[in-house]
Amino acid sequence: MTVLSPALSQAGEWLLQSGIQAPNGGVARYYRSDLERNEPISTEITGYAASAFVYLFEKTGRTVFADRARRAADFLIQDAWDEELQTFPFEYPGRPPAYFFDCGIIVRGLLAVWRMSGDERYLKAAVAGGHAMLRDFDAGADFHPILELPSKRPVVRDARWSRSSGCYQLKSAMAWHELDDITENHQFGDAFDRILEFAMNNEQSFLPGSEDEHRVMDRLHAYSYFLEALVSYGHDVCEGVERVAGYLRQIAPRFLRSDVYAQLLRVRLLSGVDAEPGAHEVRELEKFQASGDIADRRIAGGFYFGTKGGEMLPFVNPVSTVFAMQALEMWREHRAGRLERDCRVII
Fold first, then answer.
1. Closest CA to 28 of 327, 302, 312
2. What's the average model confidence in pLDDT over 255-261?
3. What is the maximum alpha-carbon separation in the chain?
4. Are residues 331 and 40 in contact, defined by beta-carbon separation less than 8 angstroms?
5. Looking at the chain, which terminus has fewer C-beta neighbours within 10 angstroms, N or C?
6. Contact, 226 vs 167, CB < 8 A?
7. Does 227 score more than 80 pLDDT?
8. Alpha carbon distances (Å) from 195 to 35, 70, 87, 100
């Protein structure tokens, strides 16, 4: 097993010790360091955390990470899943709406824990979640981004990326690709192929998508989801990497999301596209980690969401943390000449 660097060990300890994961297994959207409180539990973020705990277990062999992965998965299938509506509301307890993107991330998290544990409950729940995505979100030409609950009527779309259909949805649809491989139910594979075609047609118009720099930075995060999915299935991402890097350089002095650096670095390394500029991304990414020497365990080792006007925003974010943790470990493996470009592990 890999011995993690101090920075990555600290990120793992933050996930374990900060309280970002509640006793019931659910994970808060982020910690507000200015208000000293966690935001509500997010089903999507719990899905990401399940995958991250599996990754940490596989890297370290520490059973505490496997236990936390199972705790997150148990929460998703026992508490988060709405049996009557057959879907995952976006916050717990049971707050509507339901997001296509969130559901796919949750299914991938459940599949990660199933592969680690062999517990068929997680596979059964993942299959049910995949079928729910097919049943509820399919709009024919594309896929609804958000549904009202309990009616499951599509929410009116607007200019915000998260409230519109777009190429970023391909990351979530990776759940269907995995389910197709596991179950050989080609409904899942056919749906993935349709969303892949839609995403390829949408990607050129997705960026910049706005004249507001803050919204463009948010779209870089979403567009990077698209690149993560593409690289996972062997598609050329060279042009996309350069687009993200270019916009990132332009906007970063005024508004910057740490997750964009992490996502860009992961795609660089997995694709083999001009990896050396990753050294800059590593240096910038490391600035967002709260020192492990900080006495407050709610903060120590976690990664902040971003900066605005050069000032750190007060959000210690689990998604920023797990993306950065994986990106930095991949960089270390790349420099040591032992990076395995297994794109299935991308969180």
1. 302
2. 98
3. 53
4. no
5. N
6. yes
7. yes
8. 40, 30, 20, 12
pTM check: above 0.90: yes
Q: Which residue has the tokens 């060990």?
A: 9
- Give, in degrees to the nearest 5, the angle at Cα 156 between 150 and 158: 140
Angle at the Cα of 55 (from 232 to 166), degrees rounded to 5?
40
- What percent of the chain is helix, strand and coil (3-state, nearest 5)? 60, 10, 30
Q: What pLDDT is recorded for position 291?
A: 86
Q: Which residue has the tokens 């004249």?
A: 211
Cβ neighbours around 181 below 10 Å, total: 12
Tokens representing 183 are: 């179950």
> How much is the CA Rg of the chain, to the nearest whole Å?
19
- Chain segment 69-90, per-residue pLDDT in tens: 999 999 999 999 999 999 999 9
